[in-house]
């Protein structure tokens, strides 16, 4: 049996302000109960592919939606390069800049298989909490390079240092558990530096498990955002040149035009709510723009170590753990 259509609380977007629905008193008039929360909350997956995860979170408070966003950004762990030992760097890149670049290289290692380093951990790390890499690249001139050649690839050897040049150094029994393809860089074509003959890099890199709240390099997501679901309503018929003008006021695919050259709302979901339509007096009264106050469209793009759906589930686990700790603190008093 299909669920009855719910009453959607709307926020109306006028030309210069955002107006609340007169019949909607907002969060101030809502009393939180677990029964109502379970009844209202819905999660609907819209898209889940290599580009990322898009899902709808419906019927929750803004604080809950924002908690999930912040947890995915800063509380779900990942592996990243923490220490860079520079034995030789004769390139034009300063040591500090080079070390910073190395720290931002995304690693494929699954953080759930590693432990956090503690104050009691040895400085060199262990096979349970540390990954080691080395980068050794030396640029030289090709012997067969002619004086009239202008392509650097034909003139120099190893003049571009990529993330694919990193070599994994297994610690302990790591080689029996992992492979270089499961712990190395996610992308092998990330440009680190450009060298010329006589330039050389000799580095040892140490990767550990960390959180995005300590440093952005540990964040497992490239982006994790949400926005409110747009709602567009045509108040009257718009046809002819005005229909095409109306179509140009919205994001592509939002407004369609039928065979009679009349405008209609095709898909309001992906509108950016720019309110450009209010610039034209002849269209001012033709459209009502709104957003659904408790319908959040989440977009999660993973760096690559964890799939987006796994990142969201890990964020749910972190929130559950925090809530349990808070309840235990209250009960202890």
TrEMBL record:
The gene is Polr1C. GO terms for biological process: DNA-templated transcription. One of its GO terms (molecular function) is protein dimerization activity. PANTHER family: DNA-DIRECTED RNA POLYMERASE, DNA-DIRECTED RNA POLYMERASES I AND III SUBUNIT RPAC1. Belongs to the archaeal Rpo3/eukaryotic RPB3 RNA polymerase subunit family. SMART domains: RPOLD. CDD domains: RNAP_I_II_AC40 (cd07032). Residues 52-329 form the DNA-directed RNA polymerase RpoA/D/Rpb3-type domain. This is DNA-directed RNA polymerases I and III subunit RPAC1. The keyword Nucleus applies. NCBIfam families: PRK00783.1. It is found in: Nucleus. Transmembrane segments: none annotated. GO terms for cellular component: RNA polymerase I complex; RNA polymerase III complex. Keywords: DNA-directed RNA polymerase, Nucleus, Transcription. It comes from the Eukaryota. SUPFAM superfamilies: Insert subdomain of RNA polymerase alpha subunit, RBP11-like subunits of RNA polymerase.
């Amino acid at each position: 049996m299909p669920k009855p259509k719910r009453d959607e609380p709307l926020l109306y977007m006028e030309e210069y302000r955002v107006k609340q629905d007169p019949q909607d008193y907002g969060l101030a008039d809502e009393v939180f109960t677990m029964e109502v929360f379970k009844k209202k909350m819905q999660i609907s997956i819209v898209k889940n592919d290599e580009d990322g995860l898009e899902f709808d979170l419906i019927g929750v408070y803004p604080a809950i939606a924002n908690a999930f966003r912040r947890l995915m950004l800063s509380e779900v762990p990942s592996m990243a390069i923490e220490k860079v030992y520079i034995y030789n760097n004769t390139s034009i890149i300063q040591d500090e800049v080079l070390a910073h670049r190395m720290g931002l290289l995304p690693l494929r290692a699954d953080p759930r298989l590693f432990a956090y380093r503690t104050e009691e951990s040895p400085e060199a790390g262990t096979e349970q909490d540390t990954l080691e890499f080395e980068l050794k690249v030396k640029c030289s001139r090709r012997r067969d390079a002619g004086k009239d050649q202008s392509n650097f690839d034909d003139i120099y050897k190893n003049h571009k240092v990529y993330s694919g040049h990193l070599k994994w150094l297994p610690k302990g029994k790591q080689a029996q558990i992992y492979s270089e393809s499961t712990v190395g860089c996610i992308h092998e074509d990330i440009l680190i530096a450009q060298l010329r003959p006589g330039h050389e890099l000799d580095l040892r890199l140490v990767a550990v498990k960390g959180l995005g709240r300590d440093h952005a390099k540990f964040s497992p997501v490239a982006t994790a955002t949400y926005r409110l679901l747009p709602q567009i309503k045509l108040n009257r018929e718009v046809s002819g040149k005005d229909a095409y003008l109306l179509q140009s006021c919205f994001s592509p695919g939002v407004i369609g035009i039928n065979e009679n050259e009349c405008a209609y709302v095709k898909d309001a979901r992906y509108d950016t709510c720019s309110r450009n339509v209010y610039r034209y007096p002849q269209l001012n009264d033709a459209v009502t723009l709104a957003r659904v106050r408790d319908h959040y469209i989440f977009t999660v793009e993973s760096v690559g170590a964890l799939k987006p759906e796994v990142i969201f589930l890990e964020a749910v686990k972190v929130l559950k753990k925090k809530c349990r700790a808070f309840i235990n603190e209250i009960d202890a008093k």
